[in-house]
Structure formats: C-alpha cells, structure tokens
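Hey Z.,

So I finally got round to the copper (II) ion thing we talked about over coffee. Here's the setup:
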Amino acid sequence: MFKTILTASFVLAAIAASSSAIAAIQTVTLDVPGMTCSSCPITVKKALMKVEGVQQVKTNFDKKEAVVTFDNVKTSTAQLRNASGNAGYPVSVKIAQ
Ligand SMILES: [Cu+2]
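And the result:
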C-alpha cells in the first residue's frame, strides 16, 4: 500500500517534469509601432509566419500589436524580433507568457 503511493507520486512527478520540458508552446505579444495602414499587419504576419516554429500570428492594427504563438524549442522571441525587423517593422516584446 505505502509502496503504491510512493510509486504513484513518483510517476506524477515524472509526468510533471517531462511535460514542462516538452511543453514548449509560448505566446508573446509584440508591440509593432510601425504599422501605419491596414496592409501593414499582413506584411508583419507573413514575416512572422515564415519563422520556423511559429504556429499562429494574430495581428491587431488598432492596438499595433502582434500576438505570436510559437514553439520555443524551434525559435525564440529574439528570432521573432529579427524577422519582423527585417521586414521593416521593428518590434518590442510587450507581454511574454
Ligand atoms: Cu501599411
């Protein structure tokens, strides 16, 4: 009985440890002050979607921001900043989750 509890808690701990290593999906909100017309968000989105590991980009022209969901094993906020910056839209990280 005691051994079973020990085993169960060990398994739970192992699952918790491994999921934190695998759970690499991250969402970041980027400030894109350079978006000045309604076609800018399209350019920004295209540039960000090209980055390997990016899963979703939601641009908001009114807020001048882009919310990017990405695999943080394959890419990083630094690479996202580079991609947008190279497309002519320098960004800063607003909220990292
Ligand atoms: Cu524009």
